[in-house]
Design brief:
The complex is a heterodimer of chains A (181) and B (343).
Chain A lengths: L2 H26 L3 H21 L3 H26 L13 H25 L16 H9 L3 H33 L1
Chain B lengths: L17 H33 L15 H11 L11 H19 L8 E3 L2 E3 L9 H22 L3 H24 L1 H7 L4 H10 L8 H15 L10 H4 L9 H26 L12 H22 L5 H29 L1
Antiparallel strand pairs in B: 1-2
Classes of the chains: A mainly alpha (181), B mainly alpha (343).
Chain lengths: 181, 343
């Protein structure tokens, strides 16, 4: 085992421990702001995994967009609203809980399948990665060819979300004006 | 056997030896610290001159020892902590995070063409990444947590308002900042700062074709650093000192270091993207000298802006960011894309 391999193992192990530990911390903390901080740690340790999979661009984008921009909004809102404003548990499993359980079961099945495939060495050919794998150019080419539909659908979804936000905000402002009159 | 892909491209796999990089990193951090120390002096001197007074001139000839006097004073101050801080570790961690991230961001800035010294390859930057521009933005977005956390964890009205302002301002101007450099990326077809400098060596400095992008970058950059006239997060007249109100001694000093190093990094980024980095028509070997000279000019403009421009009101800040800078930067990026594809 070469020195580089040992280093990769150490980094991988640290990222794995950080990832699982911070994920547990997200649900374990009572204070919502600490949960948000743990989530940032979780997203950053995921970025380390992308880095180890030689996808530097995805790793940097992960840190920039999720750990950076999205979580800043989370922190901003939590700090603004107040972290101690706890919403009481209304009780009873909703369709969201059921959906969550189904999604978790699907993920678990997928994990088990992948581990089983890996154990029987059926994934071994995936070790060969071309030189420009994960480069911005190759990712852009994939977006514009193989995954064009998904890419465009996501842009429409984001547009709907933006317009929805504007409509909600405008509604509130009109209500306030009505009260004033 | 490694659990991962065989050709793992860790940043360590650079052409130069890893310990050369480590020495380089150490030297760069020391130079940055010295630059920070003397920036505080030069800023006070220049502000003094702008206001028709002398500025600090007691410690040593022309006051050049003032930074060291300040340092000794800061280190010897009692580091107090308010009783009501929400979490002591976060309280200490916030300034540490700010300063660490500020230094980390500078590591990808190229300040020379690389040399060979006694048979060892020495690169012109601490680490050379193919996506260094995105890495700078990623590190910058993490460093804003230092400010947000520091203000929130202090459990003080002024600090909290300062942190909220900082959060809103950073989120708003990060978008415009990223869009304003898109033109440069499109023209050079590279996300690597070294590649962008090389592209400017082949063509011209991007200040000429990207003057609009440069204007957006300059305004959004000042806002991103939170310096006057965009210093709402620490507006003295309204918020005492904003997010670092409850910090003292070297803990406050770390926030100060982070702010100045961040300013130096943004200026260095501006020099790299728009003014050809370490390039100059003559004497290529002395890249770092040209780089430092250009950097000094940009930093002077930062201080000049602080001395002459009044602070923006909060609504003016948001209007400028969302209704002026963002559309202009977007149009510039789209126009550049058309130009690059068609011409």
């Amino acid at each position: 085992m070469s020195a580089g391999n040992i280093l990769v193992w150490i980094v991988w192990f640290a990222a794995a421990v950080g990832c699982i530990g911070s994920a547990l911390a997200v649900v374990a903390f009572r204070n919502a702001l600490f949960s948000a901080l743990a989530l940032i740690g979780n997203l950053i340790s995921l970025a380390v995994f992308y880095l180890l999979l030689s996808a530097e661009f995805v790793a940097a984008a992960q840190v920039l967009i999720y750990a950076g921009a999205v979580m800043v909004m989370f922190l901003f809102v939590i700090a603004y609203v107040g972290w101690d404003k706890d919403i009481a548990w209304t009780g009873g499993p909703s369709w969201q809980t059921l959906g969550g359980v189904v999604a978790a079961a699907a993920l678990l099945t997928e994990l088990l399948v992948v581990i089983a495939l890996g154990a029987s060495n059926e994934l071994a050919h995936s070790n060969h990665v071309s030189a420009d794998f994960g480069s911005p150019a190759s990712i852009g080419r994939l977006f514009m060819s193989n995954h064009l539909l998904a890419f465009e659908v996501i842009s429409v979804v984001l547009l709907v979300a933006a317009i929805g936000g504007v409509i909600l905000g405008a509604q509130k402002r009109r209500d306030r004006k009505g009260v004033k009159r | 056997m490694s659990p991962l892909a065989t050709n793992v491209a860790l940043p360590l796999a650079a052409a130069e030896r890893w310990w050369v990089g480590a020495i380089e990193a150490f030297v760069v951090i020391m130079i940055l610290l010295l630059t920070f120390a003397f920036m505080t002096l030069i800023e006070r001197k220049l502000l003094g001159r702008f206001q028709l007074r002398f500025g600090p001139n007691r410690a040593g000839p022309f006051g050049v020892l003032q930074p060291f006097a300040d340092l000794i004073k800061l280190v010897r101050k009692a580091p107090f902590r308010p009783d009501r801080v929400i979490h002591p570790v976060l309280y200490l961690g916030a300034p540490a995070l700010s300063a660490t991230m500020a230094f980390l961001a500078f590591s990808v800035i190229p300040w020379g063409g690389g040399w060979e010294l006694y048979g060892f390859q020495i690169d012109g930057q601490v680490v050379n990444l193919p996506i260094s521009l995105i890495v700078i933005f990623a590190i910058g977005s993490i460093s804003s947590y230092g400010v947000l956390l520091g203000g929130w964890v202090s459990e003080s009205k002024y600090a909290l308002i300062g942190a909220m302002r900082a959060g809103a301002q950073l989120v708003s101007y990060e978008v415009a900042l990223a869009l304003s450099v898109l033109g440069v990326v499109l023209m050079s077809r590279s996300l690597s700062l070294t590649g962008i400098v090389a592209a400017q060596q082949r063509t011209i400095w991007y200040i000429v074709p990207q003057i609009v992008g440069f204007a957006c970058f300059a305004v959004a950059g000042v806002a991103e650093v939170g310096r006057a006239p965009f210093d709402l997060p620490e507006a003295e007249q309204e918020l005492v000192a904003g997010y670092h109100t409850e910090y003292s001694g070297m803990r406050w000093g770390l926030f100060q270091i982070a702010e100045y190093v961040h300013m130096i990094t943004i200026s260095a980024l501006m020099v790299t993207l728009f003014f050809g980095g370490w390039l100059f028509p003559v004497l290529h070997r002395f890249g770092p000298i040209w780089f430092v000279l250009k950097l000094a000019i940009v930093l002077f403009c930062f201080i000049w802006a602080r001395a002459t421009l009044p602070r923006l009101r909060y609504d003016q800040l948001m209007n400028l960011g969302w209704k002026v800078l963002l559309p202009v930067a977007t149009v510039n990026a789209v126009a550049t894309a058309f130009f690059v594809v068609l011409v």
